[in-house]
User: Which sequence fits this backbone?
C-alpha cells in the first residue's frame, strides 16, 4: 500500500465514523421531526435528547476531520468537489448551522413557542443535511465531478443516483439512531420507548435495505464502472453488509436487540467501504486517481503524524466521555 | 467569507479565553471554599457551552466555505497550509470532548477532578488558536514549500509551514486579543449589573476576575502589537505603507493620526513629524518603504479604511490599558475595586470596545494583504469560486448570521434573567444534564 493509499484509508475511516456517529445523530433529529405534537412527542424527544446531549458535538467533529484531511491530503479533488457541488454543499452547510443553533438554543430556552421554533429548525435540518451530503456522494460516485472542477452545477447532483443515495443517507441515519435509542431505552428500563423505537428501527431497516438495493440499480444504469467494482472487488463487503443488515433485522424481530447495534454499524460501515473499494483507484471516477490527486509526501507524512496523535489523544478522551455518559445514565438522572 | 470569519473570530475568542477565566473562578471557589466564586464558574461554564456550540457550528461552516468559496486557494495550496488545519482539528476535537466532560461533570466528578477536566479545554483552546492563526499567518508569509516552473507545489516542509515568518507575532497577538475581548466582555456584563444597583459580592467578583486578567494581558498585547507592526514594515512593506499612509519611500516619515487619503493627499490628519520612522527603526533617519514600491495593481484597496482601522485598534488598546491601570492603582491603594459610576460606565463599554479593536485588527491583517490571498503568490481574484449566484449566497449568509447573532444574544439574556430570578440551576445547556422534560416540539 502506498502512502496516498494509507491517507485515503484514513480519510475513509473518518467518513465511516462520521456516517455512523453523525448519521445516528441526524437520525435522532429525524425521529424528533416525526414524533408528533408537543404532548405526544415528549417521550421520544426526551429520550433522543438525553442520548444526544453530551456527545452531539463530538459526533460532528468527524465532519471537520474529513474536510481537513480531504483538502490537505487531496487538495485538487477537494477543490473539484466543492466547485462542482457548490449548491448541495452550501445547502448542507446552511442546514448544519440551523441544526446546531436550533439544538443549542432549544436547550437553553424555556418558552414553548421558542422551543418549538428551534426544535423545528433542528429536526428539519437533520433530514436535509444528510440528504444533500448523500446527493453529493452520489455525484462523486457516478463520476459527475470531473477533476478540473467544471462539472455541471445542477445535473451533477439532481439525478436519480444522487436522489437515491441522498435518501439512503437519511434513512440509514434514522435506522442507526432507532437502534441506538432502543438500547438506551432498555438501559433506562423504559419498556414503552423500547417498543416505540423497535418498531421504527424495523421500518427504517426495511426501507434502508430497499434503498440500498435501489442504489445498486441506479448505479447499474448510471455509473457502470462503480457498479462493476461493487459486484467484483467490493462484493464481499456488499454481502457482509447485507448479512449484517439482515441479522440486525432478525434480532429486532425476535425481540433480542442486544446484538443489533454492532450489526447495524457493521452494515453501514461495509457499504461505505464497499463504495471506496468499488471506485478504487479513482478518487473522482474516472478522472482523478488517489495517487494523482495526493499532496506531496511530506504533507502526507504530517497528516499521518497528526492522525497518530489524534488516535493517541482523542480516542482515550472520547472513551472517557462515552464512559462517563453511560455510567451517569446507569445511575439515573437524579441530581 | 469575510463576514462569517469576522463573526467567528469573536466566538473563537470565547473558546480560547473563556474557559481559562471560568477555571480561575472555579479555582478560587475551591481553594477558598467560596460558594459565590463556584456559582460564577458554574454559570460561566454554561454560557461557554452555548457559545462553544454556536462557535463550533460557525467553524464547521467555515471549513465548508474554504472549499466552496476558495477552490483556487485550496486546490493549489491546501496541501501546504492544510497541515495547520489538521492540527487544529485535533485540538478542536479535544476541546469539544472536555467541554462536554466539564459541563457534564459539575455534579458527577469530585471537585478537583472536575477542575482538572477543565484544564485540557484551556490547553486545546490555546493549541487551536496556535494552529488556526498559523494558517492565517502563512497566508501573510507563505513559506515551507517548493514550486516547479509552472508554479505547482512539488515539496512541502511541514515545520516551516506551521512556524512561518509571521506566526511568531500573529499567534500571541491573537491569543492575547482573545483574552482581552473575553475579559472585558464578561466584566462589562457585571459592570452593567452594578450600575443597576446590584452591588453584591457576586457582581463584584464577576467584575474583578476578568478585569484582573485583562489588566495583565493589555500591556503585553500593546508590546506584542508594536513588535508585529515593525515586522510587517519589514516583511509586508506595502501593507505597512497603506496602514501608515507612506506614499513614497522616505526617511523622516511622519506619523498620521486619523485622516483620509484622497487623491494622493492625506487630509484631516494629525501629523507628527518623523514619528513613523522612529517607530519602525528607532531613528528619524530610518527609511520606510512607500506605496510606490508596488505597482498600483499590487497595492491594497481602501488605504483610508485600513489606516483608520489600525488607528482605532491602537487607540482602543491604549484606552483599555488606561482602564486596566485605573483598576490596578485603585486595587493597590484600597485593596478594593473602584466602584465609582464613571469607572463602571467605562467598564460597561469596554467589552464592545475590545470587540471593535479585535475586528479592526482583523480588517488590518486581511484587507492589508489584498490583492493577495496568499501574499505575492496567489491573487484573491484567482482563488475565488466561479460559481454564479455568489452574491445571493453571501446575502443569505449575512442574514443567517445576523439572525444567529441575535438569537445567541436573546438566549443568553434569557439565561441571565432566569438566574437573577433565583432559578439558580439548572438552566439546560447543550452538553448539560437534562432536567425533567418540559414538553418540547
Assistant:
Amino acid at each position: 500500500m502506498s502512502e496516498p493509499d494509507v491517507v485515503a484509508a484514513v480519510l475513509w475511516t473518518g467518513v465511516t465514523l462520521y456516517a455512523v456517529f453523525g448519521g445516528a445523530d441526524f437520525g435522532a433529529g429525524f425521529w424528533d421531526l416525526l414524533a408528533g405534537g408537543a404532548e405526544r412527542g415528549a417521550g421520544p424527544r426526551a429520550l433522543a435528547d438525553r442520548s444526544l446531549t453530551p456527545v452531539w458535538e463530538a459526533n460532528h467533529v468527524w465532519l471537520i476531520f474529513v474536510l481537513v484531511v480531504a483538502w490537505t491530503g487531496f487538495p485538487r479533488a477537494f477543490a473539484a468537489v466543492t466547485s462542482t457541488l457548490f449548491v448541495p454543499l452550501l445547502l448542507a452547510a446552511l442546514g448544519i448551522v440551523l441544526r446546531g443553533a436550533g439544538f443549542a438554543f432549544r436547550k437553553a430556552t424555556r418558552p414553548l413557542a421558542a422551543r418549538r421554533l428551534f426544535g423545528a429548525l433542528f429536526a428539519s435540518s437533520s433530514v436535509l443535511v444528510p440528504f444533500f451530503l448523500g446527493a453529493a456522494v452520489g455525484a462523486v460516485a457516478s463520476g459527475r465531478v470531473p477533476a478540473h472542477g467544471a462539472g455541471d452545477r445542477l445535473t451533477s447532483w439532481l439525478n436519480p443516483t444522487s436522489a437515491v443515495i441522498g435518501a439512503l443517507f437519511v434513512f440509514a441515519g434514522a435506522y442507526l439512531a432507532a437502534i441506538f435509542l432502543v438500547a438506551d431505552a432498555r438501559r433506562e428500563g423504559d419498556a414503552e420507548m423500547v417498543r416505540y423505537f423497535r418498531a421504527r428501527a424495523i421500518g427504517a431497516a426495511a426501507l434502508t435495505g430497499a434503498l440500498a438495493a435501489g442504489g445498486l440499480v441506479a448505479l447499474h444504469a448510471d455509473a457502470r464502472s462503480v457498479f462493476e467494482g461493487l459486484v467484483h472487488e467490493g462484493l464481499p463487503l456488499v454481502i457482509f453488509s447485507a448479512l449484517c443488515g439482515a441479522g440486525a433485522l432478525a434480532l429486532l424481530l425476535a425481540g433480542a436487540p442486544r446484538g443489533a447495534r454492532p450489526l447495524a454499524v457493521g452494515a453501514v460501515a461495509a457499504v461505505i467501504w464497499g463504495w471506496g473499494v468499488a471506485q478504487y483507484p479513482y478518487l473522482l471516477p474516472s478522472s482523478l486517481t488517489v495517487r494523482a490527486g495526493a499532496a506531496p509526501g511530506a504533507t502526507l507524512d504530517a497528516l499521518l503524524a497528526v492522525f497518530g496523535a489524534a488516535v493517541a489523544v482523542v480516542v482515550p478522551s472520547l472513551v472517557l466521555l462515552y464512559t462517563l455518559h453511560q455510567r451517569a445514565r446507569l445511575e439515573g438522572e437524579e441530581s | 467569507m469575510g463576514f462569517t470569519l469576522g463573526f467567528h473570530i469573536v466566538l473563537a475568542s470565547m473558546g480560547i479565553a473563556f474557559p481559562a477565566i471560568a477555571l480561575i473562578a472555579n479555582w478560587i471557589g475551591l481553594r477558598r471554599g467560596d460558594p459565590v466564586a463556584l456559582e460564577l464558574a458554574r454559570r460561566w461554564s454554561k454560557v461557554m457551552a452555548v457559545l462553544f456550540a454556536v462557535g463550533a457550528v460557525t467553524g464547521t461552516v467555515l471549513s465548508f466555505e474554504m472549499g466552496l468559496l476558495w477552490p483556487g486557494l485550496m486546490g493549489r495550496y491546501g496541501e501546504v497550509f492544510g497541515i495547520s488545519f489538521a492540527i487544529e482539528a485535533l485540538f478542536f476535537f479535544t476541546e469539544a470532548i472536555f467541554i462536554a466532560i466539564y459541563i457534564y461533570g459539575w455534579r458527577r466528578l469530585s471537585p478537583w477532578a472536575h477542575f482538572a477536566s477543565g484544564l485540557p479545554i484551556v490547553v486545546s483552546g490555546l493549541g487551536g488558536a496556535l494552529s488556526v492563526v498559523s494558517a492565517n499567518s502563512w497566508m501573510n508569509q507563505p513559506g515551507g514549500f517548493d514550486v516547479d516552473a509552472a508554479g505547482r507545489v512539488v515539496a512541502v516542509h511541514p515545520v516551516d509551514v506551521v512556524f512561518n515568518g509571521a506566526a511568531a507575532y500573529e499567534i500571541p497577538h491573537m491569543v492575547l486579543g482573545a483574552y482581552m475581548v473575553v475579559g472585558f466582555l464578561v466584566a462589562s456584563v457585571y459592570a452593567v449589573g452594578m450600575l443597576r444597583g446590584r452591588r453584591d459580592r457576586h457582581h463584584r467578583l464577576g467584575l474583578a476576575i476578568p478585569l484582573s486578567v485583562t489588566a495583565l494581558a493589555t500591556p503585553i498585547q500593546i508590546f506584542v502589537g508594536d513588535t508585529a507592526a515593525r515586522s510587517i514594515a519589514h516583511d509586508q512593506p506595502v501593507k505597512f505603507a497603506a496602514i501608515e499612509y507612506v506614499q513614497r519611500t522616505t526617511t523622516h516619515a511622519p506619523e498620521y493620526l486619523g485622516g483620509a487619503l484622497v487623491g494622493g493627499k492625506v487630509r484631516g490628519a494629525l501629523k507628527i513629524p518623523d514619528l513613523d520612522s522612529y517607530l519602525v527603526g528607532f531613528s528619524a533617519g530610518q527609511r520606510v518603504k512607500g506605496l510606490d514600491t508596488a505597482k498600483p495593481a499590487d497595492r491594497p484597496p481602501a488605504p483610508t479604511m485600513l489606516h483608520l482601522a489600525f488607528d482605532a485598534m491602537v487607540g482602543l488598546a491604549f484606552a483599555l490599558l488606561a482602564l486596566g491601570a485605573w483598576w490596578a492603582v485603585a486595587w493597590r491603594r484600597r485593596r478594593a475595586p473602584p466602584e465609582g459610576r464613571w469607572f463602571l460606565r467605562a467598564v460597561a463599554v469596554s467589552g464592545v470596545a475590545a470587540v471593535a479593536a479585535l475586528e479592526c485588527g482583523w480588517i488590518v491583517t486581511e484587507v492589508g494583504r489584498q490583492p493577495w490571498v496568499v501574499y505575492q503568490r496567489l491573487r484573491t481574484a484567482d482563488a475565488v469560486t466561479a460559481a454564479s449566484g455568489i452574491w445571493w449566497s453571501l446575502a443569505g449568509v449575512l442574514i443567517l448570521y445576523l439572525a444567529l447573532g441575535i438569537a445567541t444574544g436573546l438566549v443568553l439574556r434569557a439565561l441571565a434573567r432566569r438566574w437573577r430570578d433565583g432559578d439558580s440551576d439548572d438552566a439546560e445547556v447543550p452538553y448539560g444534564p437534562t432536567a425533567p422534560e418540559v414538553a418540547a416540539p
